[in-house]
Amino acid sequence: PGHTSFVRREPIGVVGQVTPWNYPLMMAIWKIAPALAAGNTVVLKPSDTTPASTVLLAQVAAQVLPRGVLNVVCGDRESGAALVAHPTPQLVAITGSVRAGMQVAEAASRAVKRVHLELGGKAPVIVFEDADVGAAAEAIAAAGYFNAGQDCTAATRVLAAPGVHDEFVAALAEQAVGTKVGSPFAEDSAVGPVNSARQLAHVSGFVDRLPDHAQLVAGGGRAGGELAEGF
Predict the structure, then answer these.
(1) Which H/E stretch holds residue 21?
(2) Catalytic sites, residue numbers
(3) Between the CA of residue 94 and those of 7, 89, 140, 143, what are the distances in Å?
(4) End-to-end C-alpha distance for the chain, whole angstroms
(5) What is the pLDDT of residues 99-116, one digit of tens each?
(6) Is the pTM of this model over 0.70?
(7) By the number of CB atoms within 10 A of the CB, which of 95, 103, 180, 198 ranks highest?
């Protein structure tokens, strides 16, 4: 009697955020909006290969938000590391690779900062014996090639049951061969160029390092024509 207990939720203060290049505008919004809604201010560093949409978003937001509430700092990995290590932000959030997430968590731990990590995955799609193989191949191809495969939830590997394995591989190869790679401005293109030379080398590396037990059943080379000089 005479005592009470309650929880009071307060803004953290300054939130440091690092966003990737695969969905630059949406990733920025998904990071910024919750932080601002909870009463925090934001310092956000977009990817050095896709900063333009984030800068434009900040310019538009500056017409509404008080000065200093939303801040965008452009730069490379060193800029992101500096943002995470700076003593002012007491929460740091990153969407990126597992390696980058580990580095952010390690840097934040020195000041016992809160962290929010959204990291890359390699979760498989599973095809069972009773699956509609044609429908599965069509859906998995769409899930794998969406946004040129640059998606943390992309269908990047498949575990197929022994009874449908060969039929499924043939069906998926057929989907791959029938997928149009071309300019992102062409209406019939299903897959456009990837983000950068580094990403092109990363994707090509899977084929270059093909293990002895693996077999290439479709593609495997760089797209020609109008994309031969690009990514």
Answers:
(1) none
(2) 118, 152
(3) 28, 13, 28, 24
(4) 70
(5) 999 999 999 999 999 999
(6) yes
(7) 95
